[in-house]
Amino acid sequence: MAVRRIVAIVLPQLACELVKQRGPVSPSGKAPLAVILGGEEDRRAAPAPRPEREPQAPAAVIDVVDDEARRYGVRPGQKVVEAAALVAHLAIHRVTFAEIDAALGRVAEVALGLGATAAIQLGEQGAPRAGAARASRAPERAASEARSPWGDGPYDTVWLDITGASHLVGGEEALLGELGERVAALGHRARLAIADGPRLAQALARFGAHADGGGGAEAPIAPPGKGAQAIGPLPVQALPVEREVASFLVRLGVLRVEDLARLPRAQVAARLGPRTADVMELLAGRDPVPLLPFEVPRLLEEEVLFDEPIESAESLLFVLRGMTSRIASRLAARGEACGRLNVAIAYDRSIARLRLGEREDDGAAAALLELEDDGRGPSLRFHVDMPVPLSDASDLLRPLKARLERIELAAPAVGVHVIASRIARARRVQLDLSRDRSADPDSLPALLAELSAEIGQERVGILEIADAHRPEARSRLVPASGEAAMTRASAAARARAAADRGAAEQAGGADAPALEPARLLAQPIPLGRVGRGAIVAVDRHLYAIERLSFVMRIDAVEWWTPTPASRDYARAWLVSGSPSGKAAPARLGELRPPRDGASASSCGEAWIYVDRATGEAFLQGWCE
Length: 624
Prior knowledge:
Elements: E1 6-10, H1 14-22, E2 33-37, H2 41-45, E3 64-65, H3 67-71, H4 80-86, E4 91-95, H5 97-111, E5 117-119, E6 121-124, E7 127-128, H6 139-146, E8 157-161, H7 172-185, E9 191-195, H8 198-207, H9 227-231, H10 243-251, H11 257-262, H12 265-269, H13 276-283, E10 291-292, E11 300-310, H14 313-334, E12 336-347, H15 349-358, H16 364-368, E13 379-390, H17 393-404, E14 413-425, H18 443-455, E15 462-465, E16 475-478, H19 483-508, E17 519-528, E18 535-538, E19 541-557, E20 565-576, E21 602-611, E22 617-622
Parallel strand pairs: 2-4
Antiparallel strand pairs: 1-8, 1-9, 2-3, 5-8, 6-7, 6-10, 11-14, 12-13, 12-14, 15-16, 17-22, 18-19, 19-20, 20-21, 21-22
């Protein structure tokens, strides 16, 4: 039986990174950062953006600090008033547990591409720990647990079961390298480790040689069955003991795990408190705690809330670039692509109501208050459809950028919410080894998505051959909604081209003219009664019909409609010139030089039809 192998992905700066993804943490953008976890239960239940930053309570306790704040002496566990006394320009922000859970879920999704099971929580004999119900517990208890190094918090770890899977990517070291790159693409700094159990791997990731950030130490990998020896050099804080117990052991001179392992078990057990059994298991190198599998959501959602409202499209584009990058990383791990991006830009409530009150007469209020019914406040909502599902970050951003450049914000934005829907399996293109260059298979779908966002989805599509008698009805524009539509249209076009070639060969060989016009006018131009030598007016110019060639007749087409068509189709050679032989200035771009020794005047081969009911002729298009 294979030994269980677990990867621990510890994100020590997760809360700070989530704050920085919202935008600058201060007006200068370089202030030290401290984060308070939890609180604001109303935001967790219905995460509505705040219109303005609210001051933090002086008695609130800091949970996470970034490297800059740590250099100034700010530490987790300090009160806000104490930290402010050390650093006057300290930026203090709040991150809810819902945001933490969402970020850990994104990392778990990305990790699932390299392992069988990912988890953001541990189980105990098949039942969830108290952390599974942390959304409903009291805020003060949640805050205290979040500051605990063990138990339910801190919430900064994702576990991945790679048992029997590491050889698929070249070994455990190569797997850690690939996993680190995927987590970095989400904008997080991670510490990775591998061991026989989740708690052993978590201890190595948090307190291993690489945890101090110096020396370029590689991620620790505990050999199978050697978990006890691997955690031996770690400090006693790496064990699941309370903070007071760890401080007592340090005062006694028990600094490392291996020092504790040498002491008599009975005396040690009397000092470890309620987690004695867990500690003894880890000291023996056993870690049987199961993982609670993470359930991957069907729809991908990304939400960023701003502490300071923003009004420029450039700032929104910067945020959307990071959001699409994270969505692309999650799609790549799942082997999927998305066909629609739904975007909601939340407005500042007070400013939006003020400005919308001034614009009630032009009907803009109804378009800008689409989220008022569900309690989230005024916002601007739009969606971008992809003709073919895409998964690359740059391809997802291009149509959003084209759409955002045409949008004028009615009020400062306090948040952005993006949902990737219409999830489908991503296309896999076989490598082409016969050519030095290969076209990107997603280049055309990405261009179509950008054009759809720029000029409208109804104006972008593919021509589909229709089964009709009238030439103007034999093709129609259909949306380029997927590979099936394009494949069907290309097959129909090939079949139609083959039929045209066969008809041309029967009519007079391969050099015979085509039986249908190359271009059709949007509206036929009345010519009156025509014949050879008749003078017709087209685009405010006079032309003479040099010759006529009958093509076909349709009789009582679409007889079930109020206007059945009975027509004679012909090709007419139009010439326009002066007696001196000089060509008159032509305004029709379709006119071209004559053939078969015709006069040197401006000329063109037109496609006309005669209504058999009235005898009137109409110019319908031009032949090439």
